[in-house]
């Protein structure tokens, strides 16, 4: 073999090793997050949301609700022992504003999130009364 062939072979091996390390590091984190399945859905135009979490596996998972200023409104930990988690959260007692429901893994990766806004609609009725003379 000549020197150029040996150099090309060494460069090719180095590239394959680097590519395998990069994909291994990325796959480990993605697989752990991808294994957790979630769904956050509003309950038929109400101020309640259903939250489902499955396949927690060996990770701790947190359900977190925060307001627009990142103030914590609600937090619940889901144990890795739980195969499934389902809960309905009622937000009818909250003030008007923007809120976010987040499902986070133990290393604070966002698995799923939903942002919503509460607005109070007020109907104003105005009447005219004409004085009779």
TrEMBL record:
It comes from the Bacteria. Residues 1-25 form the signal peptide. Keywords: Signal. This is Secreted protein (Por secretion system target). The lineage of its organism: Bacteria, Pseudomonadati, Bacteroidota, Cytophagia, Cytophagales.
